[in-house]
Design goal:
There is one protein chain. This protein is elongated. 34% of the residues are buried. The strands form four sheets. Strands 14-11-12-13-26-25-24-18-22 form a nine-stranded antiparallel β-sheet. The protein has an eight-stranded antiparallel β-sheet with strand order 6-2-3-4-17-16-15-10. Helices cover 17% and strands 43% of the residues. It has six helices and 26 strands. The termini are far apart. The longest helix is centred in the first third of the chain and has 12 residues. The protein is an alpha+beta fold.
């Protein structure tokens, strides 16, 4: 089979598909791209044992049809070095020899029999099919991915939980120290569904789905989900298990409200955290109506730090402790100039949210407190 293609366009699609290919694979065939030519459409497939991604693009002057596997690392390096020139592929499907011609030269290398490449199963008859705006999907993933657990002992927590209702969509993630709920009522999925999306697939979607993408079509099967958008299709094996009931974790009544500049608080926490105990990362927060006083101490090295920021606090004065590492993550992922922190007492979790609400979107981040010993 033969075809001409833009080097720049091909590089874009190869780089996108390569996001799901592992550096080391148990199956050596998964070190390859699968290239398939049908008419004037070239499809490029890559994957690991959990994810499969396909990108399609148009080619020029195609001759014949067929498919071949090509080592991903080699093809990416070759296309990158050719520097966006027009390319001509001449592939002998019998011998697996590949001749790649460009403006001032050519490369000869070998492919692999496409028959060795794993095939995806046919779609299940009872698969659930629905669509979301690209902005909703990206917003939910961006708002929750940072809080996903990396602990393999609790695999259920290593993904983003999709709680889908006809008139709203809720994204949830937690590493047991912090819990994030991102709810969007503008989505209107029109179906009821739940599943846990693995972090790797979420990262791929975050990097490739445009917020301007009109529609992302989602096909949920018994063990997997497929996301179709633009020229791409990503199929991923979902995480098995029942996600904890996140609704019970959020306290129903946190009567005290603290409003503080997000950047001021974030920068102060970062500075004070430099002197916190490396074992606990504890920072104490003494909260008064007009000021939050932060303090940290490392007894092992005899160091300490204090800093205060202005605030607007409605409630009884309080001393509460938080892990500085987790608080930095929470404050870094809240959008807006000011953050609202709802509190009850030093033993109950704090609820962090942006003071300025985005229409149709509710974001709440829960952080567990730490014991403070005077």
């Amino acid at each position: 089979m033969k075809f001409n293609v833009s080097g720049k366009d091909l590089q874009t699609q190869l780089q996108a598909v390569s996001k799901v290919i592992n550096s080391k694979n148990a199956l050596s065939i998964l070190d390859n791209f699968l290239l398939k030519l049908e008419g004037n459409t070239l499809s490029i497939t890559g994957g690991d044992q959990e994810n499969v991604m396909t990108a399609t693009m148009e080619v020029i002057d195609p001759e014949g049809e067929g498919e071949i596997a090509i080592l991903a690392k080699r093809l990416l390096e070759v296309i990158k070095e050719i520097n966006n020139q027009p390319l001509r592929f001449d592939i002998d499907l019998d011998t697996k020899e590949i001749k790649l011609t460009f403006n001032n030269g050519q490369f000869l290398f070998m492919g692999v029999d496409a028959a060795e490449y794993p095939r995806t199963k046919d779609r299940e008859e009872n698969a659930l099919d629905f669509s979301l705006p690209g902005s909703v999907l990206v917003g939910g993933i961006e708002g929750t991915l940072f809080a996903v657990s990396t602990d393999p002992i609790r695999p259920i927590m290593t993904g983003i939980y999709f709680d889908i209702e006809p008139e709203k969509l809720t994204f949830v993630s937690s590493d047991t120290h912090k819990l994030v709920k991102y709810q969007d009522t503008t989505a209107q999925p029109g179906v009821e569904d739940t599943f846990i999306l693995p972090a790797k697939a979420a990262n791929v979607l975050k990097s490739l789905v445009s917020k301007e993408e009109d529609t992302v079509n989602i096909i949920h099967e018994s063990k997997s989900a497929t996301f179709v958008f633009g020229p791409y299709s990503l199929s991923t094996r979902l995480i098995k298990g029942v996600y904890p009931n996140y609704k019970r974790v959020f306290p129903k009544d946190n009567p005290y409200r603290l409003v503080v500049g997000r950047e001021d608080m974030l920068n102060a926490v970062r500075r004070v955290a430099l002197f916190a105990s490396k074992a606990s990362n504890l920072i104490k927060f003494a909260i008064d109506p007009m000021k939050v006083q932060m303090g940290a101490r490392d007894l092992d090295y005899g160091t300490s730090a204090e800093e205060s920021v202005d605030c607007d606090y409605q409630g009884d004065p309080m001393m509460i402790g938080f892990n500085s590492t987790y608080m930095i993550e929470v404050l870094s992922n809240i959008k807006g100039d000011d953050v609202q922190i709802d509190l009850a007492d030093p033993a109950r979790p704090g609820l962090f949210s942006p003071l300025e609400k985005q229409e149709g979107v509710e974001v709440v981040m829960l952080q567990m407190p730490m014991q403070v010993i005077e």
